[in-house]
Amino acid sequence: MKRLLFALLTFSAFALFMACSGENEPATAQQNAPEKAVDTASVQFTWYTDWNEGMAAAKKENKPVIIDFYADWCHYCKQLDAETFSAPEVKSRLAQSWIGIKINGEDKNAKATFDGKTYSPPELMQYFGIRGFPTLLFFDKKGNPVKPYTVYINFVPKKPFGPLLDYFRDELYSKNIDINNYIKSKN
User: Fold this and answer.
1) Is the pTM here over 0.70, yes or no?
2) Mean pLDDT of 51-65
3) Domains in the chain and their CATH numbers?
4) What is the mean pLDDT of residues 50-56?
5) Which residues pair with 67 in a beta bridge?
6) For residue 148, is the peptide bond before it cis, meaning its omega torsion is within 30 degrees of 0?
7) Rounded Cα gap, residues 58 and 26, in angstroms
8) Are strands 135-139 and 145-152 parallel, antiparallel or unpaired?
């Protein structure tokens, strides 16, 4: 439990740091360089809204899964959708390598099967120790949740979000590579 709390605090602090960093610093040549062009017309990424369908698709396509637990009233959930998930470079990464599942964490009528048991989204949140919105949960290509279970993000800008996806896609956590150092090295 202490490791989970430490991970949650670390990721929250990192997200806050990334969201606030760079505003008072002089721009570098890399920051001024134009972003790589992404053909937004060809980038298609559709979020599953049903846990079971999304997990079945991930198994079929042998892809890792990102699960976005959200609430309709959540400001940071909407900001994550509008500014990060909709960014062409993020959509491109998601489309190439991920299955995404959006779960309304307050929907008591939806059902999800995990580990042979059926849960409602609030029960799933409790199972994984999720206490806030938005929360992202990552599963590897084998369908196993990455531990610690949750990454409470709040809001992460598009720039560090791409390396965050790469970190989990490439299972760098299993090689004991520090996530904060990895993301800093990519920005």
Assistant:
1) yes
2) 96
3) 43-156 (3.40.30.10)
4) 96
5) 101, 137
6) yes
7) 42
8) antiparallel
Contact present, 137 and 11 (Cβ < 8 Å): no
Mean pLDDT for 52-69 is 96
Contact 100, 94 (CB under 8 A): yes
The C-alpha atoms of residue 40 and residue 29 are separated, in whole angstroms, by 25
Q: Sort residue 171 into left (φ over 0), alpha (ψ -120 to 50) or beta.
A: left
Look up residue 28 and give its two tokens.
């570098």
Enter the tokens of residue 128.
Answer: 């994984």
83: pLDDT strictly greater than 90 = yes
